[in-house]
Specification:
243 residues, mainly beta, Porin, two-stranded antiparallel sheet, 2% helix, 54% strand
């Protein structure tokens, strides 16, 4: 198993909406479907989306772990991520990801993104893949424990085989300010070697400053056909500015 250091860097996000969400002046806890949402000291844990999801979910707390859906129907968001991995022997990769998110009715979301990769063993930046993904949440937030969400992604590879990647997403809160996410992943190459990758991604975080600063730990375990398994674990920090 290769030793690796996983450096997690926060992304920039921008969401554009056709209208502002209505604010209720009532002191009665908000109701999502048939579920009454208990009060929280944190604004980022208040219901914020069309399906009752809180703001911390809509701001994508984890870099490598998806949770629920982020955008309201017909709302469009943009995110940009930069990830660096440093391996033994001086091998370093940098990945720049640009993503457009489109909210759809019935708790669905369509994402389109491009990955550009820089590998210091290969000269220059080059396109790695363009991918399309669709998410479907089975119910409004907190109606089903763990908020299960089905995720399906098709990747158009710049070189090599295209891939199909289904995931099952889970996530939620425990205690005031504690957030978690868990993904079960299977990626299948469609031709060539037709290798299969199975993985588990997870993250946990604690809010230190409401709506601004949280810290945590993220990890990823994966195994690929005819290759050794790989484990990545490291700290994560999210600083949101401006608020």
């Amino acid at each position: 198993m290769k030793k690796q250091i996983f450096v997690l860097l926060g992304g920039l996000s921008l969401a554009c909406s056709g209208g502002a969400n209505a604010q209720s002046s009532s002191t009665t806890p908000p109701v999502v479907g048939n579920v009454t949402v208990s009060g929280s000291d944190l604004m980022e844990e208040k219901p914020d989306g069309a399906f009752g999801e809180p703001e911390w979910v809509r701001q994508r707390r984890f870099s490598n772990t998806r949770v629920y859906v982020q955008q309201d129907p017909w709302q469009i968001g943009y995110e940009e991520w930069w990830r660096t991995r440093m391996y033994d022997g001086g091998h370093v990769t940098q990945r720049l990801q640009n993503e457009i998110e489109i909210g759809l009715p019935h708790r669905m979301q369509l994402d389109i993104y491009e990955n550009i990769l820089h590998d210091n063993t290969v000269s220059g930046w080059q396109q790695e893949e363009v991918a399309v993904e669709l998410r479907y949440a089975f119910a409004d937030w907190n109606v089903i424990p763990g908020n299960p969400t089905l995720y399906l992604e098709y990747s158009f590879a710049h070189s090599g085989s295209d891939a199909l990647e289904p995931k099952l997403l889970f996530g939620g809160e425990f205690g005031n300010g504690w957030h978690w996410g868990l993904n079960l992943i299977c990626e299948q190459e469609l031709w060539g070697a037709q290798s299969t990758e199975k993985a588990v991604a997870a993250g946990i975080s604690r809010t230190l400053i409401d709506n601004k600063l949280s810290v945590g730990v993220e990890g990823n375990w994966s195994t690929v056909t005819r290759e050794k398994s790989e484990m990545i674990l490291g700290p994560s920090v999210q600083w949101r500015w401006p608020v």
